[in-house]
Amino acid sequence: MNKELLKKIFLPFIVLVLVIQVWTGIASIVEDFPTPSDTYVAAFGGINADGDEIIGVLEDPFYIENQDVKGLFWQIMESLKRVFAGFSLAILVGVPFGLMLGMSKSAQYAFDPFIQIFKPISPLAWLPLLLFIFQDINMTAISTIFITSIWPIIINTALGVKSVSEDYMNVAKVLRFTAFEKIVQIILPVSVPYIFTGMRLSLGIAWLVIVAAEMLTGGIGIGFWIWDEYNNLNYHNIIIGIIVVGLVGYLLDLIMGKISDYFDYTKKGRA
Amino acid sequence: MSEKFLSLENIEKRFPIPGKDDYVAVTDVNLEIKENEIISIIGHSGCGKSTLLNMISGLDAQTSGSIKLQENEIQGPGPDRAVVFQNHSLLPWLSVYENIEMAVKKVMPELDAAELRQRVETYISMVNLDHAKDKAPGEISGGMKQRVGIARALSITPKVLLMDEPFGALDSLTRANLQEHLMRIQQKVKNTVIIITHDIDEAVLLSDRVIMMTNGPDATIGEILEVNLDRPRNRVELQHDPEYIRCREAILSFLYEKFAKDDE
Question: Where are the alpha helices (H) located in A45-187, listed in sequence order?
């Protein structure tokens, strides 16, 4: 076990060293490309290659200078707020809709073609239309997340409903369950693991979308921050932004995974 | 008590096949079942015995004919005809206790919390599962699951207990064990029981009458065998009992001489 643990720590470390080597290689070829050490200084502060003293962006992520100039932490919080708003809406609409699709063949026939068509549409394609409708940055970002992250929730919920075994439904029939009792006592418990898989995929999409959406809408948020740093020619901050986005996304997925395990009866050390 | 407890008259079940004549699974079934009688229905696979049971339970409707329970025509499934399914059909996210509680709660909403608990625990004890009542179905053996299935079915005091090859998926030792359980419980709570089986010994051991089905299509009742053995029955002593041997031979001869079926 200890050997396994050592491998788990040591092997990614080797890959990290390799990545930094490649990065250094790119920096030496592409003009003005920030080197790993430049980026480190930009992130955590210190003396940069030009010999200037620098305060890193991660040194004080909580600072607030004014309404528009805030630390990285606040940028991320703004993005997360939008993500959760859009994601919550997607759950509120997607789960009942998915339940309906799973239970009714007719509903499935009626909506399936449209789901298949809407599902692969890039968030960037929705954005101008939604911006035109809402004329508001927040509403546009939230509705873009909603409309792109709802599909996995719908599809997986419907899949969960369809996976309910005939045997369980026979039990419900013999006991004369009402439609509502069937949903609450049989269909939901079976579907919950599927619904959470959908939610996990959906949250991943939402986090992908927010960066792109904020780049176009502007204002505040991690996506806009990255774009702004590009315009300010602070290329090292772009790399810091990318790494932070990755870490936050990983954290979100980890939390969502834990939550879904909690609600999954097959993973409670039971079945 | 009326002699006519459960009656099946001219039952026929057809399955439509597109572009062809209907497949007649079961036809011309007439049967009277007395209260507290234990009936086995035996036959080769494909003889429509499960179809017959599903029609009695109401999970499947007959194409024609009538099924009456105490003079009332059966309309769809209901808790007066509890079913023990072959694959136990316990809800895996509920504990043993909760699985039974769910059924009792639904069928007897008038019970208060204490009565409900007492009732559930009575039936858990009846199948000797007190030690496992808080376990999930995934944590207990196949035989135990099936005992929970039986307890759940009995806990709602059905008029008829329908068992669809209840022990078919179990190994023979566990099966024998469960048969004993069932006979012991039946001594305590008299019930009308219909058991679908393909096990000759099981049929003779458990039943008052054995219904032998001919092979499908157009399956129907071929013979009805009365098992005149006293209860409680002991499987070991029965091995040399002339009546037991006669019953076994009658079923054997029906299944393997009169209505033998080639392996498919």
Answer: 72-103, 105-118, 123-134, 137-162, 166-174, 179-182
Report pLDDT digits (tens) over B52-76: 999 999 999 999 999 999 988 988 8
Q: What is the DSSP letter of B109?
A: T
Structural domains of chain B in order of their starting residue, each with its CATH number: 1-80+192-264 (3.40.50.300)
Q: Which domain holds residue A199?
A: 72-267
Q: Which of A166, A169, A171 to mutate to test the interface with B (most CBs of B within 10 A)?
A: A171
Alpha carbons B109 and B113: distance in angstroms, whole number: 10
- Cβ-count burial A135-162 (b if 16+ within 10 Å, e if not): eebbbbbbbbbbbbbbbbbbbbbbbbbe
Set of chain A residues whose Cβ sits within 8 Å of the Cβ of B92: 265-266, 270-271
Taking the C-alpha atoms of residue B94 and residue B145, their distance in angstroms, rounded to an integer, is 12
ipTM: 0.86
Report the residue of chain A nearest B136, measured CA to CA: A270
> How many domains does chain A contain in total?
1
A170 vs B contacts (CB less than 8 Å) = 59, 77, 83, 85, 89
Mean pLDDT of chain B: 89
